[in-house]
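2024-03-11 09:14:02 INFO worker-7 job=invfold-0412 stage=load source=structure_tokens
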């Protein structure tokens, strides 16, 4: 049985080879690929390409490689990360999950494009076996036990407002429209 370091190494190798992996997160199982291979996620998931995917980072400060945080973005990052909050700014949705394996993987390979590990329009799986059944061509599925937390809260931050696009467990106090 592999330990966490070996699982991270195996997943990093798959991602760097241009393949997708299924990983547990602090909310649901995710279908993941490196951002350069994001088209693979849309193909596997049978998802329209106009629906964005989240980018997972290892540390809150890593988001600064993806966009220049606005003051409201920085405040949300400080207050809610790591955690189940996806922040959309400048058209990019970024999240720093509260999951050590995902953090270690993102630290090893850089930001990771991720979407829930279900076919488009199907229910989100709660187990690795359910996720794997939807994607038989994905070679590496990391079993993290039961993942059944609500999907992350998604907020969009602009210069003058913070809008809640999807409500999850994280409540953004006093900032929603």
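2024-03-11 09:14:09 INFO worker-7 stage=emit residues=177
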């Amino acid at each position: 049985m592999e330990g966490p370091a070996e699982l991270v190494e195996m997943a990093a190798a798959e991602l760097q080879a241009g393949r997708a992996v299924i990983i547990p997160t602090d909310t649901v199982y995710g279908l993941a690929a490196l951002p350069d291979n994001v088209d693979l996620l849309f193909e596997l998931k049978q998802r329209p390409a106009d629906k964005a995917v989240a980018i997972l980072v290892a540390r809150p400060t890593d988001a600064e490689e993806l966009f220049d945080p606005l003051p409201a973005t920085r405040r949300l990052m400080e207050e809610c990360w790591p955690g189940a909050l996806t922040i959309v700014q400048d058209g990019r949705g970024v999240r720093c999950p509260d999951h050590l394996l995902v953090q270690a993987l993102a630290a090893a390979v850089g930001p990771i494009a991720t979407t829930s590990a279900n076919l488009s329009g199907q229910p989100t799986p709660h187990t690795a076996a359910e996720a794997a059944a939807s994607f038989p061509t994905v070679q590496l599925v990391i079993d993290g036990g039961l993942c059944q937390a609500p999907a992350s809260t998604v907020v969009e931050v602009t210069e003058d407002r913070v809008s809640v696009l999807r409500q999850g467990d994280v409540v953004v106090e006093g900032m929603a429209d």
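2024-03-11 09:14:09 INFO worker-7 stage=report msg="The CA atoms of residues 153 and 167 lie 5 Å apart."
2024-03-11 09:14:10 INFO worker-7 job finished
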